[in-house]
Amino acid sequence: MDSSLRRFVRIRAGQRCEYCRLPQEFSELRFHIEHVIPRQHGGLDETNNLALACPNCNLRKGPNLTAVDPDTRAVVALYHPRAESWFDHFAYDGEYIVGISPTGRATVSLLAMNDPERTRIRVLITQSIKDQSG
């Protein structure tokens, strides 16, 4: 994958994880260019198959294409940032991300989007916004 493609993915994502939506600026680690459909499942290095992912989301997603919805115990497809709208599957509840669809719930669970570190960062971001607005 060449540097111009990597730059395109980063800019398109607004330097924000396309899964948990944390900004790159709040991470000490560089975000990954992630294959939504992994290469081992036939995914290609094409813009419609690449997403920007924080290390936590990317490492937890791995080669998975599905996960278990914790409410129904059904196996469902994971969220696909190129084919679906984030807000169709997720909502914020304070510093927490809540899955509002089977796909959303399964993705939140598999990617551990509400782990203590990421919720702490969301609290800091919210506080910073409030401080700036007076």
Describe the 3D structure.
The protein has helices spanning 3-12, 55-61, 102-111, 116-133, and strands at 32-35, 50-53, 66-68, 75-77, 90-93, 96-99. The strands form 3 sheets. Strands 1-2 form a two-stranded antiparallel sheet. The protein is globular. The chain has 134 residues and is α+β, with helices and mostly antiparallel strands. Strand 5 and strand 6 (96-99) form a beta hairpin.
Order of helices and strands: HEEHEEEEHH
Strand percentage lies at: 15-25%
Q: How large is the count of helical segments? A: 4
Unreliable residue stretches: none
Distance between the termini: 44 Å
What structural class should be given to the helix and strand makeup? alpha+beta
Query: Could you estimate the helical fraction of the residues in percent?
Result: 25-40%
Shape: globular
Q: What is the overall pLDDT average?
A: 94
Q: Output the radius of gyration.
A: 15 Å
Main sheet: strand order? 1-2
Count of β-strands: 6
User: Major beta sheet, specifics?
Assistant: 2 strands, antiparallel
Give the helix/strand layout.
Elements: H1 3-12, E1 32-35, E2 50-53, H2 55-61, E3 66-68, E4 75-77, E5 90-93, E6 96-99, H3 102-111, H4 116-133
Antiparallel strand pairs: 1-2, 3-4, 5-6
Question: Could you give a quick summary of the protein structure above?
Answer:
This protein is of the alpha+beta class and 134 residues long.
